[in-house]
Amino acid sequence: MSHRSSTGTVPAETTAVGYHLLLDLHDCRYDSLDSVSKVEKLLRAAADAAGATIVNSAFHHFSPQGVSGVLVIAESHIAAHTWPECGYAAIDCFTCGDREILDRIEDLIVEGFRAGSHSRRLLSRGPQ
Predict the structure, then answer these.
(1) What is the tens place of the pLDDT at every residue in 72-116?
(2) Residue 51 sits in which domain range?
(3) Does residue 24 lie within any of the structural domains?
(4) Which residue in 35, 86, 96, 124 is the catalytic one?
(5) Given 81, 86, 119, 124, the catalytic residue
(6) How much is the pTM?
């Protein structure tokens, strides 16, 4: 399991409608960042591991490199934007479900992109 250094705070008692996880992944493998099929497969595996229900998806490969993609899940969404030339991926996960889902998604994505390091921000969303 990866070390989670979090910025932002999530109050112990909250009336949040959801939780938003932002991941910055560094020193990732070029080949995992520049392939629509690999990015999509990884996001789908993360959604499956979290028990999320995939509703729809859209993925795009940029020229000369990079991928953006999103899975719409019943619980909200998982999105990825990659910069292979920098070894970097920005991941955005939002869930209106149990926030532990985000921990499972994070672990799988960090491992799947083989990130050398990463940081996370977890935000509580909705009325406070």
Answers:
(1) 999 899 999 999 999 999 999 998 877 888 888 999 999 999 999
(2) 32-115
(3) no
(4) 96
(5) 81
(6) 0.84
Residue 4 clears pLDDT 50, i.e. is over it = no
Number of domains in the chain: 1
Q: How far apart are CA 29 and CA 52, in angstroms?
A: 26
Mean of per-residue pLDDT scores for the chain = 89
The CATH number of whichever domain residue 66 belongs to comes to: 3.60.90.10
On whether residue 12 sits in a domain, the answer given is no
Instruction: Tell me which H or E stretch contains 54.
Output: strand 54-61
pLDDT at 14: 57
Q: Whose CA is closest to 128, among 10, 36, 38, 4?
A: 10
Residue 36 domain-assigned?
yes
Active site residue 76: yes
26 among known catalytic residues: no
Q: Which of 76, 77, 93, 118 is catalytic?
A: 76
79 lies in some domain: yes
> Under 8 Å CB-to-CB from 27, ≥6 apart: which residues?
87, 115, 116, 117
